[in-house]
Amino acid sequence: MTHRLIPVFLLLIAQVATAQQTEKRYLSGTGNDQTIDWEFYCTAGRNSGKWTTIPVPSNWELQGFGKYNYGFAKDSSRGKEQGLYKHHFQAPASWKGKQINLVFEGVMTDTEVKLNGKSAGPTHEGSYYAFKYDISNLLQYSSGNLLEITVSKHSANASVNEAERKGDFWIFGGIFRPVYLEILPAGHIEHVAIDAKANGSFTAQLQLKTNRKASEISGQIYTVSGQKVGEPFSAKIGTETHTVALTKTVPKPLLWTSETPNRYKVEFRLLEAGKPVHTLTKFFGFRTVDVKPRDGIYVNGTKVKLKGVNRHSFWPSSGRALSKKLSILDVNLMKDMNMNAVRMSHYPPDDHFLDVCDSLGLFVFDELAGWHGHYDTATGSKLLHELITHDVNHPSVIFWINGNEGGHNAELDALFAQEDLQKRPVLHAWEDFGGFDTQHYREYNYGIGTYNHGHSITLPTEFLHGMYDGGHGAGLDDYWEAMWHDPLAAGGFLWDFADQGVVRTDQNGLIDTDGNRGADGIVGPYREKEGSFFTIREVWSPIRLERREITPTFDGTFPIENRYHFTHTSRCSFTGKLVKVGGPFNGVKPSEKSFPVAAPNLKPLEKGVLKAQLPGDWKDYDFLYITATDPHRRELFTWSFPISLPNQIAASLVKTDGSAPVTFTESDSLYTVSANGIVLSFSKRTGVLKHVANLNGTIPFTNGPVLQEGINNFKNFTHRMDGKTVVIESTFDRKSSYNTLQWTIFPSGWVKMRVRYFPDGYFTTLVGVNFSFPEREMKAVNWMGKGPYRVWKNRMKGGTLGVWNKAYNNTETGETPVVYPEFKGYHANLYWCRFETTGQPFTVATENEDVFFRLFTPAWKTDQWHNYEPLFPTGDLSFLQGISSIGSKTQRNETTGPMGMKHIFYDYEKEPARAKELTLYFDFSGK
């Protein structure tokens, strides 16, 4: 029996073996992390006029050749820069009789190809599209072959330059995506387009090349892990058949969404005269995308809102030459910000980026290139075909975009449906087109008002244009809440993902963003996380915890909203933690205690209650944390809540007693006070602190408090002893000295400052007091409050309450050198702050809630419209009860929503009861 089975088994193996899989033989590397050197000659610019080598894939500017161009440069479409490539490779004799395609995944910009001195076909025009040549008849088998490629950085086709080379982004040249040989049997499957719907219906449209007798094409669906799904399905084909459709129904398939990226694979097998000759495997997902006019976008029958970002294919040291590792990095960063969508701006991405979006779950808007100009119809038709042929089977791709901001060729619109088996919707970015209003960068008042009163589905494909530290997180909470509650709002896309800072090999490795043009990212060029990263993470968390005050009667419940579209909260997990922090110099280590949090069973879009099982001693801790984790074990966000308030921490921190009373002396202009080795001098006329010293020397913290946007009308100072304590205070007068200042110096050496004041005006931007301190002497800051990133009035979310430390740096967001978090700026929810200096440290604490402290003034740059410019107080160190918001490249801060507007104060004719009050405590002991 055994001897009879073996020949049958071997026969089956032989039959399978003859069914050749599509083979890829790379001539280049596979990405910027794995390259192969080719011979290279650059015709103009740096290192031109000589043969040398260059890694492929790459952009030649990053390898030291040619000239760097930003799209606005005058020569962005007229340059004569070319790269000449040569590469030798072998073609084995076993390839004879097969079809050999030479495939380019992307070349900038015009590509002329010769093999063994003969043209491989017409010059390809267009940068971002995969194209191929059948070189079967040009190959020299069993010997060497010479591949010669001439790449023109700028196109001979004026429309290509208008669409690609005159954009608001860097312009590069070179073979920047992989090059490979595709080895196919003479009879083969040329192309497959798949349409797999949420109801389980599966259709595959196959293009075949076969010249033999009646044949058959079959398919078998598998899970990604290789388990068969249903029975195989097939169709007979005739000798003249070049296109065939295969259909199948899969009962209750696992559906693909951004939250549940369930994928399958299908294997097709072509048989000629009953023998298998070619097999081809494709990954896909079951999902259906519907647009309901005047309603919204539906995925698998569920209405969705898109939380997206625009992404350029970009890496600072390699330009647009990327790798799958970088695609994984970028998609994970987007998912970490709780995004569910990404727009390909302004051209198709690498194939591996779409693979990662498929597997990790992001909705993709794939774009035919065009910035403010577009391809002519003949060129655009060809490139559109290449785009859809290349990307059609990715379940992540749910929309096509026909150009950007005027770069639309309307004659191409109908071709999308002709080319795409799935008939995905088509947008014109920045137009009201196809039932979608996608206009960019609307001001909050005008834009949201239009959204709420228009009839199109609103989907801004660019909004909140980031620049340096503005935009993105700043204003997002206002915009998103309006979008979330508007039935016609389908979400939107931020501009953009990463700073386009390119390594200038002609400037000793400088990272260049072309001024403010490329500094638009949420993350830096090397994906350094800026402050807005964490704001977006909180605002776009699909689990939303409402604001909750933790009082002594707190019962452990948190109002919660499920903003997922497809996921029940029962599939998420929640954890809780209590933290007690140490003081600035008491040497007490923080202590923690975890507690369980039960996951509620809320359907998508439902509200309910999250219940924390708090331990009995929870009131002894300072902060409470709740962490939500998604079904894939990705942290959504950690919310922090104060248990201890600043007045409680200050009471435990500030020591008032001392063995000796405070001494007081008076001169013509100064009050001088001594306590426990600390000497302080105050102006008799203004009450401003003029001098600080202790037994070890001077602390240059002076010239305060100076009111910001308030009048320093502290007058008529008096002094008195209160036991061992000295009190120096101004006199209140309704007309001339309605702002008051009081200093209390305790025998311990601690100093208390109490200011009662009225902001000077109905509308104010900055509210609080300033002091002077030389920036050159600041080393670091250690504080209890919200951190570690700075905040703006319209970007308060994303931080965490705790104890933070950061060393001084002079980083400006979006510029090099990059050190995040930035040191300078506003910081929220101050309890205490210890300043580490080149001399002696000193500590400031407050008993007030919601106090900001400001560290110096960043050397801000601006934009040509002066939208971005943030405001800072005078002085060096500030303690504030109101801070400024920040704008973006396209909007002033006041137009980004209510949180971007100024503060409003009613003074009721300066009634003392309506005054703002700020109390600070200072320790100048040098501990």
From TrEMBL:
Domain Glycoside hydrolase family 2 immunoglobulin-like beta-sandwich: start-end pairs: 188-287
Annotated GO MF terms: beta-galactosidase activity; carbohydrate binding
Keywords of the record: Calcium, Glycosidase, Hydrolase, Signal
GO biological process: lactose catabolic process
InterPro entries attached to this UniProt entry: B-gal_small/dom_5, Bact_Beta-galactosidase, Beta-gal/glucu_dom_sf, Gal_mutarotase_sf_dom, Galactose-bd-like_sf, GH, GH-type_carb-bd, Glyco_hydro_2
Endpoints of the signal sequence: 1-19
Cofactor: Ca(2+)
Catalytic activity: Hydrolysis of terminal non-reducing beta-D-galactose residues in beta-D-galactosides
Domain Glycosyl hydrolases family 2 sugar binding intervals: 52-183
Keyword Signal: yes
Complex formation: Monomer.
Designated name of the protein: beta-galactosidase
